[in-house]
Design brief:
The complex is a heterodimer of chains A (431) and B (193).
Chain A (H helix, E strand, L loop, with lengths): L1 H14 L35 H14 L6 H5 L4 H6 L5 H4 L21 H4 L2 H4 L27 H6 L41 H8 L2 H4 L4 H5 L14 H4 L4 H9 L4 H4 L25 H4 L7 H5 L1 H6 L3 H4 L5 H10 L11 H5 L2 E6 L2 E6 L13 H4 L7 H8 L2 H5 L11 H16 L2
Antiparallel strand pairs in A: 1-2
Chain B lengths: L1 H29 L3 H30 L9 H4 L5 H14 L5 E5 L13 H12 L6 E7 L2 E11 L3 H9 L13 E10 L2
Antiparallel strand pairs in B: 1-4, 2-3, 3-4
Classes of the chains: A mainly alpha (431), B alpha+beta (193).
Chain lengths: 431, 193
């Protein structure tokens, strides 16, 4: 009987050999649960997690925002004494995985007063900080351990007296659909092989799409150059990346594509922790799940595609909100281009880049970049239309976020007033 | 044939040992002391720093008035301040594990994190300020259980841009710097074990 039990147990384990969930020591954080069964995405052989694993996904982001606490600060021998208080050499010192009982927002597993270890005498330098609890440094809209690009004093000063809504409230304009001066391709010019039967509806959608306008024929996606000449029925993200590499890179780095990037099956709403529409369970995430493959209408992808799946309070409150009203007005030609606010306006924002001296606007598909902490959205989105103080207050009000900004912020953050007071003190000293 | 092979093999081995021995002797003969290495590194740092301050920042900002240098150089589309230029280089060297580290400190730092902290830093900064930069300061210290040769060199105001920026900065604890003043010090550390 004992042998039988052992045999059954062994059989069970063999059957479940690929099911690595058996090895999960505890619930994974919101940022990593999608790839939790790909242990080697983070763990080196024999269990360790090195900074390299973290930097593989987060390094470029940290460099882009000029990480306020890079590793090089702590490998400097003059800071060796500080390491005795807190081992800041390793990401995992503050971000331990599989520890749900001690995990705070942003995946933080240190007590929130960690700033104390190095900045305990801050009140000597900044008397305004006397008496402030070290638990509030990073939780009151004032500081961020890594990214202070929207929180530094000179930046706040520059935006101090802006109105709640700016007079010219528009987001950056996108690139023209095509750099080609040739007229759009027509249905008669399409180049699919004879053996392929093209549905008239799909042909019509393509003929009126940005792809036809940009001289992108059927073969460009279904028989991509350099690949197998056989007809590709459902081109994947690698095909899209031929022309949209920045966007695909963002998609793979974000919540929608991170499973694909880790070599796992595509993400599905059924696997999500956020509330999703039960009708969307059969969907999987690829470029074409949001961008219709033939009409490629970005207006659809900006709202309708999102609301097919997302059913949390914030998403459900969008329709009927002021942002949605602006979006409808733009779509109906009643308001200037760029004045509407869609889901994508905030979560897949348009980024202005400088390349070879030219300004280029691209759409960031890594929605994780500006999502948490909320103030990261200030620079990339909110300040296009809103004043700094109003936007910071709004992002710090969780109830307002939940109802999709129907109303005004409940509290005014002290951050702005501290900056204002210091500025007026300076003026009195040096009129 | 076998004997020839043995002899050739023996000669090769002897040659290798001799060569190794000569190599070691050479390393000993040409080995440089931490002090010489630190002085050489500082000569490069000081020269680059002076060139950037005088020929880039001071010329373009203070004399030609064509571009500003700003602490927030990315957002302001401006030149990095000379001190930032120096620190960025130090951080890059730090991330390369280059076998030494360096930093720019001051008894009157704009950012208080750059005040002298270790005993050697405090003594070194006091020394170079008291000697008005005429002498360097050398010592040894143990940090985090590791021994270091530590050298401190005076950082002197070489251009108007240095003194106007520090004298006007709202976080500067000292606002009466003059040209030629010791404004701080460069600390170079070389591990000795």
């Amino acid at each position: 009987m004992l042998f039988l039990g052992a045999g059954l147990s062994l059989g069970f384990r063999i059957q479940k050999a690929d099911d690595r969930s058996l090895f999960l020591p505890g619930q994974t954080t919101a940022g990593h649960y999608q790839i939790e069964l790909r242990c080697d995405a983070c763990h080196a052989p024999f269990g360790g997690v090195t900074n390299d694993a973290c930097n593989k996904c987060h390094g470029a982001e940290l460099a882009a925002v000029d990480d306020a606490h890079p590793l090089s600060k702590f490998t400097d021998p003059r800071n060796a004494g500080r390491l005795e208080s807190i081992d800041a050499l390793h990401c995992a010192t503050c971000h331990r995985e599989h520890q749900p009982e001690i995990t705070r927002p942003m995946g933080l597993t240190q007590p929130v007063d960690y700033c104390f270890h190095c900045h305990e005498d801050i009140a000597e330098d900044r008397p305004s900080h006397a008496g402030l609890a070290f638990t509030t440094c990073a939780t009151a809209g004032c500081h961020n351990y890594h990214d202070n690009s929207a929180l530094y004093e000179a930046f706040i000063l520059k935006h101090l007296d802006e109105p709640d809504v700016k007079p010219a409230a528009v987001r950056p304009a996108r690139l023209a659909r095509s750099s080609s001066s040739a007229p759009p391709l027509t249905a008669a010019q399409r180049d699919e092989p004879r053996v392929v039967h093209a549905e008239p509806l799909l042909v019509d959608q393509w003929e009126h799409s940005g792809h036809a306008a940009a001289d992108v024929n059927c073969s460009a996606c279904h028989q991509p150059p350099g690949g197998d000449p056989a007809w590709l029925g459902q081109p994947g993200h690698n095909t899209c990346a031929q022309c949209h590499d920045f966007e695909v890179e963002g998609f793979l780095a974000g919540r929608h594509g991170m499973r694909l990037a880790a070599g796992l099956s595509a993400m599905s709403p059924t696997a999500a922790r956020l509330p999703m529409d039960p009708q969307s369970g059969h969907r999987t995430l690829s470029c074409s799940s949001c961008h219709d493959a033939h009409s490629v209408d970005t207006r659809t992808a900006a709202v309708d595609s999102c609301l097919k799946c997302h059913a949390d309070d914030h998403a459900k409150a969008y329709v009927g909100s002021e942002h949605h009203r602006l979006w409808r007005r733009e779509l109906n030609g009643l308001a200037p281009p760029g004045s509407g606010v869609s889901c994508a306006t905030c979560h897949l924002p348009r980024e202005v880049h400088r390349e070879n001296g030219e300004q280029v606007v691209r759409v960031q598909h890594n929605q994780n970049l500006n999502l948490r902490p909320a103030e990261k959205m200030l620079r990339s989105v909110c300040l296009d239309c809103h004043g700094y103080a109003f936007a910071l207050d709004a992002l710090a009000d969780p109830n307002l976020v939940q109802v999709n900004f129907r109303g005004t912020p409940a509290h005014h953050l002290e951050t702005i007033e501290m900056v204002r007071r210091r500025q007026s003190g300076e003026k009195q000293k040096n009129p | 044939m076998k004997n020839t092979l043995l002899i050739t093999g023996g000669l090769l081995l002897a040659g290798a040992v001799l060569s190794l021995h000569t190599g070691c002797s050479k390393a000993k003969a040409t080995g440089i002391s931490p002090k010489v290495m630190a002085d050489a590194l500082h000569a490069v740092m000081e020269s680059d720093r002076t060139v950037y301050t005088r020929n880039v920042v001071n010329r373009l900002q203070n004399e030609e008035n064509v571009i500003k240098a700003s602490e927030h150089w990315k957002d302001e589309k401006a030149l990095p301040l000379p001190a930032q230029m120096f620190r960025m280089g130090a951080e890059m060297v730090q991330s390369k594990n280059a076998g030494f580290t360096y930093s720019l400190l001051s008894p009157w730092p704009v950012n208080k994190q750059n005040a002298p902290k270790t005993d050697a830093e405090k003594a070194g900064l006091d020394f170079i300020v008291a000697n008005e930069g005429t002498e360097n300061y050398y010592t040894e210290e143990t940090l985090g259980g590791k021994k270091y040769f530590t050298a401190v060199y005076a950082d002197v105001a070489v251009a108007k841009a240095c003194i106007t920026c520090h004298n006007d900065h709202k976080d500067s604890p000292r606002t009466d710097f003059k040209m030629g003043d010791v404004m701080g010090g460069v600390v170079i550390r070389i591990p000795t074990e």
